[in-house]
Task: structure prediction
Amino acid sequence: MKQTDLKMLEALISDIPRATTIYANASAFLNSVLADVSWVGFYIQDENDNLYLGPFQGNTACVSIQKDHGVCGVSYGKNETVRVDDVSKFPGYISCDAAARSEIVIPLRDKSGTPIAVLDIDSNSLNRFSDAHLEEIKLLEEAAKIIENTISAI
Result:
């Protein structure tokens, strides 16, 4: 992923009046520009303060995740990015895809800073989101900001 991809993402999702469409196009776009990923999608806050499956690219996935459970639930509950170099070593890992080896989850927030969803990206390679990829991770966090700002403007 490159800085120019952020501008392309912003242009792709701007002026869209539906959150579902924004999530769908964002997941498809990120899946197309990221190397060595197997799943890109969103889990969205539900009325019980848990997460449910939103638009994604990849194999079928877990439908709901409780707050503070699995990588997505921990990221959502702590309201911070969680990177896992080896998912088999993550306590309470929820395996939706047996081939997944590493994962990054980035929260999306409303205007007050409260998490409303998470961007979840998996890879079948170990250490895909390790310190060696810090520049790309920063770009992914910027992409999440673009998505959350676009959704907040609806």
User: Anything to note?
Assistant: The chain has a mean pLDDT of 97. The chain has one domain: 3-152. The two ends are 27 Å apart (CA to CA). The CA atoms of residues 75 and 82 lie 6 Å apart.
